[in-house]
Amino acid sequence: MLVLDKISSGYGRAQILRDLSLTVRSGEILCLLGRNGAGKTTTMQTIMGLLPLMSGRIALDGKDIGSLSAHRVPQAGIGYVPQGRRLFTGLSVAQNLEIGLLARHSGPDTLEEVLTLFPRLRERYRQRAETLSGGEQQMLATARALCLRPKALLLDEPTEGLQPSMIEAIRQVIVQMRAAGVAILLVEQRVDAVLSVADRVAFIENGQGGEVIEAETLRQDHSIVERYIGV
């Protein structure tokens, strides 16, 4: 379980998050939904130690991780697929995955599980990441995060700019990770994609938490979504 308890964060002197609280249960997909600039990516970066935690507490399975340096957060069991992927484009698929494996000292069994989830990457195993299509690069970024054997997985706009077949392939993997007991925090602007996988939806506005609502409720009534993001 990933818990954010009244966290505040920002860039330099600019505070973005203000007393934001969220709980992502093990085996759950919680989608963080809000307008551009609401603080969604800031939330992810704060969890990962990439931005300073000004106040509040971040805990994974009861252990405080808010004080960890950025390189130690993945070691604690949090996988992160950032917006823009941030692959080592000059390295091969194999080398990018090896970096993920090293972060938590995972072995060949983990690598085989990940390649089974993404058979396309097995076919491209020796290719440089820069030669992959956008969808294949997104698969690689996700696979690299899964090499950590994460307890929690953060995904920032994983379907952005992808064709439908790639979106579906990544959606299936996300659903499998939920079934395996991973706590998944998903940032996604496409409301249809959100409602196809999410268990609950947490709204964020001006860096502050709003309502947290069962996804099934939103499937039946879109008025709440319209209020928060104007679609």
Automatic annotation (TrEMBL):
UniProt keyword annotations, A-Z: Amino-acid transport, ATP-binding, Nucleotide-binding, Transport
Listed SMART domains: AAA
PROSITE patterns: ABC_TRANSPORTER_2
Residue span(s) of domain ABC transporter: 2-231
Molecular function, one GO term: branched-chain amino acid transmembrane transporter activity
InterPro entries (alphabetical): AAA+_ATPase, ABC_transporter-like_ATP-bd, BCAA_Transport_ATP-bd_LivF, P-loop_NTPase
Protein name: High-affinity branched-chain amino acid transport ATP-binding protein LivF
Gene that this sequence comes from: livF_5
